Amino acid sequence: xxxxxxxxxxxxxxxxAAGPLAKMGLETVDDLLRHYPRRYGDPGRLTDMDRLQLGExxxxxxxxxxxxxxxxxxxxxxxLQAVVTDxxxxxxxxxxxxxxxxxxxxxxxxxxxxxxxxxxxxSEYRGTRQLTHPDYILVGVDADDDEEAMVExxxxxxxxxxxxxxxxxxxxxxVRTVLDPLTEDDVDDPVPDEVRARLGLPTRLDALxxxxxxxxxxxxQRGRRRLRFEEAFVLQAALAQRRARTAAEEATARPPRxxxxxDDFDAALPFALTxxxxxxxxxxxxxxxxxxxxxxxxxxxxxxGKTVVALRAMLxxxxxxxxxxxxxxxxxxxxxxxRTLRGMLGPLAEGGLLGGAAHGTRVALLTGSLGAGARKExxxxxxxxxxxxxxxxxxxxxxxxxFADLGLVVVDEQHRFGVEQRDALRAKGRVAPHLLVMTxxxxxxxxxxxxxxxxxxxxxxxxxxGRAGITSHVVPAANPRWNERVWEKVREEVDAGRRAYxxxxxIHPDDDVDVPGSTGRGAQGSAEFDDVPExxxxxDGEAGDRAPLRAVLExxxxxxxxxxxxxxxxxxxxxxxxxxDKDAAMARFAAGxxxxxxxxTVIEVGVDVPEATVMVVFxxxxxxxxxxxxxxxxxxxxxxxxxxxxxxxxxxxxxxxARVEALAATTxxxxxxxxxxxxxxxxxxxGAAQSGRSxxxxxxxxxxxxxxxxxxxxxxxxxxxADPALGDHATLRDAIAAQLDAEQEEFLExx
Length: 751
Ligand code: ADP
Ligand code: MG
Hints:
This is Probable DNA 3'-5' helicase RecG. The protein is an alpha/beta fold.
């Protein structure tokens, strides 16, 4: 950014005007021009004043009914009282001053019949609602001549995200001051001319004028669309560059070897692969056989069997003499993967041991909480190549971890890992390893394009045959009869030899806030919290007086003393347990020694106990949709139908209630993912899905702007193909760099 756009606002507007803007994070002309209006006021339509709330900071469009200045007898000084109206209701405006003269200019402006925007905090005086010393702007009054006044009066009024210190029209004025003198030469455009011409888009300057100073609604709509396209285009160009860079890298080809581990594994598999697993498996096998790194996203419904696909890919690589690393988001999941792998491989995982298969390999497990001895052993097996498969958590990213010949990186349940972590692991290969990324839940196509846009996508849509399915119900927490029924049901299932999960949002009843990392991002970076519920902020009016969230330890005690569950062993699992205890708890549950497991969301991803048929989720309304969907995917994995009971304290009609009701209504992960996006803000979605990416997207909406994203992707890919280093597209190059900087910053802040 150079020239006029880079100019500090303090220079352009003066220190006094720039100060409050700086507090909003707006430092330069460019920052201010990217502070887009949230919506637009229609100058012809007045605000319905019946809806104003006491104590609320409001901006209303209203017409002046009357205004009079009078002296105040009791206190001295003068008072201007005005009344504005929406045509039906009235709102008072009150101004005080030492002398009546000081109020004359207001009186002069606030002439009956004029309309304007008034902003202030709503208070009440003798039963009438009013604004004291409101800030205001009158339509058409601040223009120089009549004709201009007419034009100004008919424009849609941009309403900016504002603060009490900087009302929206102060921002509007500041924007006008910096925008009006700009020329096309001042405003470089990251969208190349030929793309703009082809799609019939306005220039960047035109678009800025359209959103900040629109002539009519169609005008700002067109400008906004063009700016959305720009955001999508810059992002897609960055992703296209990333794809092109990795495609140009060299990898080791790892073609299948007949009569190797993979063939043995397939022969021992207790089920037939689904069509989808077979199709994706062939695709992956072919790409692994190429001397160019595979870059693939495997997404699919919960329980669709993504792990088997990944295992088979890993075995192909081991057969070809390479190693595979499997990166899991939690210790529980990493341990389970290692257990499953060893179990499925049997003697094949005992390479080099007495009784192990001749062509066998080893599976090493590396997590943050290993003892020094076990850790050293695992590191050694990875570095020597003795372990063909190394399973781990973030610990795998550490500097001390070396591989003899890393050929494939599998990232399981991607939503807890960012691009940076993927890269850190990829960097451990001598040449670029192949990469397979798996999502925890299905994601809509444009989210895949936006968040995982540097990867090719495969999707598993079908579930393996013989699944009996899951039924879900919302249980109002306050209804004793329903709650009775919950435990009755748990008892019935346990008596039939099956198991139940009971999920709580907190560990300890004394934790006065949520568990660490309650923004759902705690697992980023180095920490290895296993229970990081992805709590949602409560919307306005939802907070109220709520009972404290249920806690694992408290609920376990309650269940142990419940006559209905007499004789049932209740297990406990949460992230603060020592790893050995976590493993033991999981193993006892899997083996049926403890038929009920009270747990945090530590079981959210991937945990696989086929006999588990019931899940009770306390405070279900406080979890995110995809998290609940993922949790629920832990049951009904065997031949018996699953029952998910969502205990909720949400008030009917709130977004929280909408979330749990949606969950109860469908098990279609794609449908839920789309709904999830609609109920949240975009920043949330992208932020939760992956670090970064959100800061540069101000206007773009990943679901609603699907067409635009697809269009931007096609155009950006073409531009990058023709000019991979973007040597002829300096502005685009700068925009990408700025975006990466912002991402990096965000990532560092969060880590
Ligand atoms: P997800 O896609 O959610 O990660 P998993 O890979 O954990 O699903 O698979 C869920 C369960 O289904 C596991 O117990 C797995 O062994 C089993 N499974 C996978 N593929 C098949 C298949 N083709 N037929 C029957 N069961 C399968
Ligand atoms: Mg899985």
